[in-house]
Amino acid sequence: MSSSDRSRLRRDAGGRGGPVSAAQRASAPVAAAPRSRGLGIGFARLTAVLLLAATAAGCGFHLRGDVSYAFATVYVTAPPNAPILLELKRAIEASGGTRVVAGPADAPVRLDVLNVNDDKQVLSLSGGGRVREYQLTKRVGFRLQDGEGRDWMPPGEITIRRSYTFNESEVLAREAQEARLLTEMQTDAVQQIVRQLQTARRPAG
Description:
The structure is a single chain. Helix 4 packs across helix 5 (171-197). The protein is an alpha/beta fold. It has helices at 3-15, 22-27, 33-58, 84-93, 171-197, and strands at residues 73-77, 99-101, 109-125, 131-146, 151-165. Strands 2-1-3-4-5 form a 5-stranded mixed sheet, with helices on one face. The protein contains 5 helices and 5 strands, in the order αααβαββββα. It has 2 domains: 22-58; 73-197, Lipoprotein like domain (Double Stranded RNA Binding Domain), CATH 3.30.160.150. The longest helix has 27 residues, at 171-197. Mean pLDDT is 79; it is low at 13-18, 20-43 and 46-65.
């Protein structure tokens, strides 16, 4: 057998599972890599789902029918032109078991939003004495009574605070941010009232 034939046989043997050089071992793919990538993708998807659920819960999301009250109908009042009134009515009826009526005679209870107050205060200043942060505060007082003036739950007040940074060069952007925060605070207040309404009970006697 010639030397060229012997060299060809050695190359063929190495390709069919013969001795493998260190360079060949280093360049060989790792079998577990695809599985690791799959696990990584699966974990990323799970994380995204959990974050979505947490976001939905933080926004006051409720499935229809998971809220119940001790009254089938309710009459709701609020200070004139208070934007919280419409959102509160929608939140109560979202349960599907209670209806908001147009007059007090059509319901055993009356939900009064007594006050809605928004306040804005300076939270911190920069070294030069300029405003760096503001704090927004929303207070909503309410009570639930029947036609005889009896409380179905203790009168309450919701207090919600939010803060944001301020930059004089971005006045319009900060005004938009403040409006968005106030809207979010109103939704938070509505959801807290809705949760407290679930504890309401007919007075004894």
